[in-house]
Specification:
single chain, about 280 residues, alpha/beta, 8-stranded mixed beta sheet, 8 helices, about 40% helix
Length: about 280
């Protein structure tokens, strides 16, 4: 299956599930071998992106091809990947803002394979990543929106200003409002930056719930955690939410969609704190 066929199927069916014929009889066992194999392939993904960039070929199509190759590697190791809700984008003619929970490095590597089926894409990333050897140059080519993570006010300003430019140019924006990767979802740490950007640019906000604990968070290197191919990888897109007169309503609907989907998948969540009544 090519990435073009994958995108065609998404647009036609609105969903995807790893074909039965592409699944190994038994997934690789979780542990060092699986972790080393997928980690090495992740490094290969970065090197391939760098090679394409040097040849001037790391455009939207090149990016989609590279990340889909990593997607297929996860499937060859035994991961069953599902995508639901892509049909919510059928009636959306322009770019959108995607707000997703953040579990591991995996969604940064392979989620664009899904979203690039709708439109070109920019991701909100740490500014320091652009200075990394080999990795930094391809990242600059995909026109990310960079934040420092040292000043919330300055980061918000950067996202609103640069994000609006990207959206006006026809590029959707993917951001992870939790900032830090978390195995347990905590709505209190899911900020409303996505809603603010969507409102500033006048575009829909699309919630994205994801389950990517196929790859954990590493103890030494956070990006290369333990891999368990028996754990399914799931992506679910919510409805394209328009702005509403009620302040904060769209953000609450976004969070509610993600919470409900994660709960359906059996993932843990931090209990909401009860608000104290004023006395």
């Amino acid at each position: 299956m090519t990435v073009e066929q994958f995108h065609e199927g998404l647009r036609r069916d609105g969903r995807y599930e790893t074909p039965a014929a592409d699944r190994p009889a038994v997934p690789m066992r979780a542990g060092c071998r699986a972790t080393l194999r997928f980690s090495w392939y992740s490094v290969e993904t970065i090197l391939t992106a760098a090679r394409l960039n040097r040849r001037g070929l790391f455009d939207t199509a090149g990016w989609a091809s590279v990340v889909f190759a990593t997607w297929r590697q996860a499937e060859r190791m035994g991961a069953v990947i599902t995508v639901d809700g892509f049909d919510a984008l059928r009636d959306v003619r322009g770019p959108v803002v995607y707000a997703a929970n953040h579990m591991s490095m995996l969604e940064t590597l392979i989620l664009p394979a899904v979203l690039l089926a709708h439109s070109p894409l920019s991701i909100v990333l740490k500014q320091s990543l652009l200075s990394y050897p080999i990795f930094g140059a391809p990242l600059q080519r995909i026109r990310p929106i960079t934040v420092t993570r040292t000043s919330a006010r300055e980061d918000l300003r950067a996202v609103l200003e640069t994000g609006r430019q990207r959206l006006e140019a026809g590029r959707s924006v993917l951001l992870f409002p939790q900032a830090t990767r978390r195995a347990v979802f905590d709505a209190e740490h899911f900020n409303s930056m996505g809603d603010k950007l969507a409102r500033a640019a006048g575009v829909p906000l699309v919630p994205v719930a994801l389950k990517t604990d196929f790859q954990g968070i590493g103890r030494v290197l956070k990006d290369f955690g333990r891999v368990d191919p028996a754990r399914p990888i799931r992506f679910a897109l919510g409805p394209a939410l328009p702005d509403t007169p009620a302040k904060g309503d769209r953000h609450r609907r976004c969070v509610t969609f993600i919470e409900e989907r994660l709960r359906t998948w059996g993932l843990p969540m931090v209990a909401k704190k009860e608000k104290k009544n004023d006395t």
